[in-house]
Amino acid sequence: MDFITKTKITADINKLQQDLKSLLHTHDWPKEDFDLKMPGNQISVTHRPGEDIWTDGTGNLYDPVKEEFFATEADFTEFNPYLGSYTKEMLLELAKQEGFKLGRVRYMRLEPKKGLSIHKDFDDRYHFVIETNKNALFGEVFDDSDVRASCYHLPADGCAYRVDTTREHFVYNGGWEDRIHLVINKA
Prior knowledge:
Elements: E1 4-10, H1 13-26, E2 42-44, E3 46-47, E4 62-63, E5 68-69, E6 78-79, H2 85-98, E7 102-110, E8 114-119, E9 125-131, E10 136-141, E11 149-152, E12 159-163, E13 169-173, E14 179-186
Antiparallel strand pairs: 1-12, 2-7, 3-6, 4-5, 7-14, 8-13, 9-12, 9-14, 10-11, 10-13
């Protein structure tokens, strides 16, 4: 599998953006709280039954102190009730067409001049790019080369992209506008 694969699933980017805008009128991006390990750059789209609809699906499922997972992707079975119907429709269509069940789904915002360090995830993920700029980059890291990374820009074109995040990678927003992706994990 390539690091980034453009799928055949396409959505109306204007409708995806409008659904996010409507959701943000109800609840703004959460405040970051390092003590509670609460990322301020994510909003849950799916959550576990009885858990917080805005933050349950954010962050990491692995507790490094206890050295164990506190949940599985399959636990995230409920949609945020404020999610727009078009976005929900597109998520269900993506899962159907690609042959998987939805796990955690969340909006992830990367503010200007910020990034995520080099890391690997446990599974590949799908991305719908909601907002971006030409200097928002996805980097694939190489081990055995003088060239340590290749950088890619994903456009906000309505396409779903499958990203092999089991490889070492990083993201960086070198632009002046937010980079917002709808990130989909498989159950």
